[in-house]
């Protein structure tokens, strides 16, 4: 505990660097504005003296002093906008004269109605001067609290030495001077507040700059990742549309086409565990691996998945991913599927309902091979539709805390299976997800890809 306090005080009392000074200069006007408005509003508290003893008996005599305080504070308020004189100087000068006028009100009170009772009553009222002292701590200059402590000391000494003789003689040394301890204690406390605020201001600004820099880097990373996705590429014998959304600007969901000889094509989709930059980088690496993998693996989904599993274990042993690979052989009119721990492929033969095709295979990156990745082959004809997705789609919660789930997704697809084309199907799905299910945003990386056989 002692060590932590020591570190804390070292941090707030250290001399600001040039960069920190620049930050404080930038932030200073905002805090000066806060002080100016706060001191203007709080000075009206002193008008309550007109209603309390002993001042209620001499209210017309002290009213001009209070009006003088208002004029001085109003001049400070105007100066904040005109800035014809350095605001720092105006703050100290206005504070000195405004607070001095209020102290004269107290001197007027004890001299007009001298009694021991009124002396102690006024002492309790004078405690309220810790407010204008601490108001200086709303600024970024610690000297303000010191200056106010100094001139309040002068005011109070003047007040004490102008007390009626009988009051001065009948009161103890402590009762006359203890307020000086209160004022200087408030000044020290105010200085600590200011130094702490300066540290927080520089820290927050530095963090905001780092955040802005990271945001720029993320935007750049997003543009790079976007460039890795297939654009308006033309895939022979296949039409496609896709949707992706990441809560972290970039994410680990990725898909790509592997165009092969004789017009055949592979479709690879992966969901790297985790979120953000690291998972996006791993997804990009997997794109490179799939693109550069030997040709014999590109036509054999199970062998392709085994190859990726080995590479993830060897090169990126802290990451794992689910994946699905579809190999469309348009010469033999068949589709071969390999699934590594990924949500099942959803398909609809032409004119039929969507349904899941159950496949088995262990997730990539653990090298467990249990269950082994098995291939499933099925015939394809024109009009067949295929839907592959990442689990963020079915795991996201609506406003009532209910997830869409696989059954909900199948119901959605089948309600709109008569959509004229897959673009319309995508549009209808997204509309219903956002309106009926309340899934305006997804809590996890989310992607789906819709494919339709053309020939």
Annotated CATH homologous superfamily of the largest domain: PPM-type phosphatase domain
Q: Please mark out the parts with pLDDT under 50 across 5 or more consecutive residues, or reply none.
A: none
Series of secondary-structure elements, N-terminal to C-terminal:
HHHHHHHHHEEEHHHEEEEEEHHHE
Overall morphology = rod-shaped
Number of strands: 10
CATH topology of the largest domain: Phosphatase 2c, domain 1
Which CATH top level class of the largest domain fits? Alpha Beta
CATH architecture of the largest domain: 4-Layer Sandwich
Tally of contiguous helical segments: 15
Largest sheet: 5 strands, antiparallel
Separation of the first and last Cα atoms: 75 Å
Write down the overall mean pLDDT: 88
Q: What's the number of domains?
A: 2
Q: Numbering strands along the chain, what is their spatial order in the largest sheet?
A: 1-10-9-6-7
Beta-strand residue fraction:
5-15%
Task: Tell me the structural class.
Answer: alpha+beta
Rg, nearest Å: 38 Å
Instruction: Give the % helix.
Output: 40-55%
């Amino acid at each position: 505990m002692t060590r932590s306090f020591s570190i804390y005080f070292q941090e707030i009392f250290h001399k600001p660097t040039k960069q920190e000074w620049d930050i404080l200069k930038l932030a200073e006007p905002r805090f000066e504005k806060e002080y100016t408005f706060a001191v203007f509003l709080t000075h009206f508290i002193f008008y309550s003296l007109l209603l309390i003893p002993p001042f209620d008996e001499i209210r017309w005599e002290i009213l001009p002093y209070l009006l003088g305080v208002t004029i001085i504070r109003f001049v400070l308020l105007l100066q904040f906008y005109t800035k014809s004189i350095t605001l720092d100087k105006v703050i100290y000068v206005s504070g000195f004269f405004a607070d001095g006028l209020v102290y004269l009100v107290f001197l007027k009170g004890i001299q007009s109605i001298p009694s021991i009772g009124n002396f102690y009553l006024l002492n309790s009222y004078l405690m309220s001067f810790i407010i204008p002292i601490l108001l200086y701590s709303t600024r970024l200059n610690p000297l303000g609290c010191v200056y106010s402590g100094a001139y309040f000391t002068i005011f109070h000494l003047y007040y004490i030495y102008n007390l009626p003789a009988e009051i001065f003689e009948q009161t103890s040394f402590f009762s006359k001077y203890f307020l000086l301890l209160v004022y200087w204690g408030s000044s020290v406390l105010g200085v600590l507040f200011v130094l702490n605020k300066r540290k927080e201001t520089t820290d927050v600004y530095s963090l905001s700059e780092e955040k802005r820099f990271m945001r720029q880097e993320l935007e750049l990373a997003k543009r790079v990742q976007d460039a890795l996705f297939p654009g308006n590429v033309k895939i022979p014998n296949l039409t496609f549309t896709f949707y992706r959304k990441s809560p972290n600007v970039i994410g680990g969901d990725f898909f790509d086409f592997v165009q092969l000889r004789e017009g055949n094509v592979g479709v690879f989709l992966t969901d790297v565990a985790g979120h953000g930059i690291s998972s996006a980088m791993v997804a990009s690496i997997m794109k490179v691996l799939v693109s550069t993998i030997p040709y014999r693996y590109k036509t054999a989904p199970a062998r392709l998945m085994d190859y990726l599993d080995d590479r993830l274990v060897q090169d990126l042993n802290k990451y794992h991913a689910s994946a699905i690979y579809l190999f469309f052989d348009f010469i033999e009119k068949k589709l071969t599927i390999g699934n590594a721990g990924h949500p099942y492929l959803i398909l609809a033969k032409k004119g039929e309902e969507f349904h899941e095709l159950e496949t088995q295979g262990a997730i990539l990156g653990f090298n467990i091979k249990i269950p082994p990745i098995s291939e499933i082959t099925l015939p394809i004809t024109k009009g067949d539709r295929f839907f592959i997705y990442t689990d963020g789609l079915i795991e996201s919660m609506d406003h009532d805390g209910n997830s869409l789930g696989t059954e909900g997704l199948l119901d959605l697809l089948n309600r709109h299976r008569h959509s004229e084309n897959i673009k319309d199907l995508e549009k209808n799905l997204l509309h219903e997800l956002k309106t009926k299910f309340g899934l305006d945003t997804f809590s996890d990386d989310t992607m789906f890809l819709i494919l339709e056989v053309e020939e």
